[in-house]
Amino acid sequence: MILDLKDRLLNHRALTPPLEGIGFQYGCNSKVLAPWVNYWANDYNFTEREAYLNQYPHFKTNIQGLDIHFIWIKPQVPDDVTVVPLLLLHGRPGSVREFYDVIPLLSSQYKEYKFAFELIVPSLPGFGFSD
């Protein structure tokens, strides 16, 4: 799939030069787009990004006919620690990626507290891997 994407990026039609003095009034400016296409085709590290996105366990479930993607983090805690479920919902537009920096902070159990969060982070319908 990545090879197909790179092939498509490298073998596109020639970009139409933008009108002089025009920014983005008529869509994406081809002078700005060309370096991005080159970066994605030649320099972007897809394997590194894939590993980053897969650092948390991903699941899918069917709710009322829709396949809903979600990340589910269950804390490993002793029996005397209360586990509190916490649902994290992203906005529109958005994705579960917005929570990647806060997940470790919320899913860790701190000594001074006798509770830990169990995190459920769904991709809203129409976003990410959800229907």
UniProtKB/TrEMBL annotation:
Annotated Epoxide hydrolase N-terminal domain residues: 3-99
Keywords assigned by UniProt, alphabetized: Aromatic hydrocarbons catabolism, Hydrolase
Tree of life domain: Eukaryota
InterPro entries cross-referenced by the UniProt entry: AB_hydrolase_fold, Epox_hydrolase-like, Epoxide_hydro_N
GO biological process: epoxide metabolic process
Entry GO MF terms: epoxide hydrolase activity
Family: Belongs to the peptidase S33 family.
UniProt cross-references to PANTHER family, sorted A to Z: EPOXIDE HYDROLASE, EPOXIDE HYDROLASE 1-RELATED
Protein name: Jg19147 protein
Species per Swiss-Prot/TrEMBL record: Pararge aegeria aegeria
